[in-house]
Amino acid sequence: MKPFRASGRTSSLPPSRRNGGRKGRQAFFQEEGPNAGAMWHETSIKCRSKDGYTRKVKSQDTWNPMAQNSITALDNMLSLSIMSVLTMKQKDKEQSQKHLNNLKDRFMSICTQLKVPSQKHGAILQGSHLHQVEAKRATLGKQCLEVIEEQVSTVVRALEQLEGKIEVLKEENRRLKNKLEEQENSCQEFLQLAEQGILHLPTLPLRNGQECPLQEQMVGMVTGPGVAGHLVQTLKSSLELEGMHAFLEKSHQQADGLLWNTGQPNHHCPFPR
Prior knowledge:
single chain, 273 residues, two-stranded antiparallel ribbon, 9 helices, 70% helix
């Protein structure tokens, strides 16, 4: 059981509880309409004044209602905020918009009757001005970012072109290297052919110093002057000897021509003419 109270007075609950709490405020706003905010504000002030709850700020009597330009700037800021919130929602946009607009209207109705110090009239205008400055900075930053992205794209395209040129140069280098190897192989084959064209003649046997020359040997074979004259006449009248003599003459002429062409004249004739 609840304990009995000593007196019949009501319990000391907070003002919000006595006025109905959150549900009571919602019902009050729904009944009174757009001007419910101002009426609720006045009612709460009266209730707090009756209970001795309010504290009077120094020089509050000199406060004035908010200027119309401040209210307009605040309304614009709230409208922009509502639009930014609605862009992030994917469903129930109409209901959210109605709810936010209703809240904005209530808040603005309170602001029209709200008194503020005279020196703070331009605070909202200053906030709006700062918002515009920041918006301009953001726009300028986006433009700078676009310029930087374009410059980066240009650099990337230039690098891609350089990579293509490098690949072309590498391919040309490989082609020239293969061509050089083919030429080296051809030179090796040519050198091998030149080596094969060299005549490898056997060396002449060395003569012993004690042997007599061929002419002395032939003179020793002739026994007398008559025999030598007879041999000479026989050799001159021989057809084979004449053919041999013509062959030697022709060979001697060919040898002289080859030596003159190479720049080495023949001063010694090994064959008799």
